[in-house]
Hints:
Number of helices: 16
Keywords: DNA recombination
Protein name: IS30 family transposase
Pfam family, one: HTH_38
Mean pLDDT: 86
InterPro entries: Integrase_cat-core, IS30-like_HTH, RNaseH-like_sf, RNaseH_sf, Transposase-Integrase, Transposase_IS30-like
Domain Integrase catalytic: 165-329
Strand content: 5-15%
Strand order of the largest sheet: 3-2-1-4-5
Number of strands: 5
Largest sheet: 5 strands, mixed
CATH architecture of the largest domain: 2-Layer Sandwich
CATH class of the largest domain: Alpha Beta
Distance between the termini: 56 Å
Number of domains: 3
Structural class: alpha/beta
Amino acid sequence: MGRSFVQLSLDERRVIARMHEKKISQAQIARTLRRDRSTICRELRRNFWHDREARVADGYWHVTAHAMASDRRRKYRKLLRDPALCAAVVDRLKNGWSPEQISGRLKLASGSSAGLSHETIYQYIYSQEGQDQQLARYLPERRRKRRPRYARKPRSLVFPMECAIRNRPEAINSRSEFGHWEADLMIFRKEHGSANIATVVERKSRYTVLFRNNDRRSKPIMSQLIRHLAPLPASARQSLTFDRGLEFVSWRELEKGMGTVAWFCDPQAPWQKGTVENTNKRVRRYLPSETIVLDVTHQEIRALCDRLNETPRKCLGFQTPKEMFSRHLLALER
Length: 334
């Protein structure tokens, strides 16, 4: 994976100016700075100084180029260039709207030509102008300083080593014990929204539970899992195995809500929860990737669960998952 782009520094622009003055090629400048050639080409094109009065001053001057680039980034903020739009955004922030709600409403407003992303609003809130107005205090999550846009917690902290699948007990791996589940999300076409179907399968009986989520936020998904599994006896919901998707980062809610242990596959190894992966293939017969999930009713999802659970399985000696699951539940009650 290539590294993320970092703005050219003043020292890099100084090197570009010296080498460009000596007629050194853009390719050689790029190799010297370990930058892409297109970066050098774009820099010389955008920040080349043209003196409109005295042509003798034309050229690439590193200090001038750095100032031009900084000024361009500052002017890029739409809210600094449109005071009326800025006032409308600030007013909505003070009324408790989130930047995403403000952006979505502006796009929805009939006749509105003010296209504005929520990222632009966040940039303004944490800019010097926004800090002078103390706008961050109106956000749902109030922070004096903004976290980096794509910052994430180290996966080792989110999914600790003690929960790795390699540490999962042999009784679960061998399917000799009842009450251990695997879970996954079935994702559909992006243009149909973020709604998805969660698949939860008990490893020993292959009993399947399906439910719909309207987005991929982790806490609502965990709440749904608790709602569906909590009515079972504790011995029937001992553990759940997930992959390392961000939709499962709130897995600790399971331990708090119903005492269920979570296990996690190795990175890029979904085959380690093969039971739910194979179940997803069965479900895809009825819910292909182009399905509009929000149009699928809960009754239809329930009927699909019944179809899967009432179909004989070779791995169960041609008994059905429903029969096996009921038998194990009865054994727990004795």
